[in-house]
Amino acid sequence: MTPPIPGDWVWLARIRRPQGRKGEVLAEILTDFPQKFAERRQLWLLHEGVAAMPRLHSSPSQPADSPHPPREVRLKNHWLHKGNVVLHFEGMESISDAEKLAGLIAAIPRAERAALAEDEVYIADLVGCTLVDVANADSPAIVGEIEDVERGAGPVPILVVRGKSGEILVPFAKSYLRAIDLGNRRVEMALPDGLVDLNAGA
Fold this sequence. Notes:
The chain is mainly beta. It is 5% helix and 38% strand.
């Protein structure tokens, strides 16, 4: 199968290290739907590239002239393990095989991404959007650009926003959310008074 063009990848997991002695690898989960691993057999392994990329972000992972083209693999087995996922690919049968995969990204073409309901959004798609505080409807305030999304630190994802004075951490709570316009790369939230100043530089 011909791999998608750069920019059409969705990252599912980042391989960390061997897990076990039969070629399995431990990987950090980067997808909003880890349960979908049960439905997937064909995956692609990508080199992360020179430039660091935001976690969970679906965007170009390979320059056009990359010396490391995407590699198609077949998922033999998987299971969740302490907040991560263990992956076992066909043809990987030893620790030495698994060691060669460390640092690679397990991905799928964007066209194969799971469909969402009309009122849902991929967290990864928020990266690059402008966050606007509309708590004061008469005077909306631009907080900054969403650079990353952190999960696991609390009950809701945390938006990492680059504001005028530096990094700002904003909880992506449904009670704050007012509108998401991915076409115009804009997210509107009604933030509690003082939250931006409190979390700036946290």
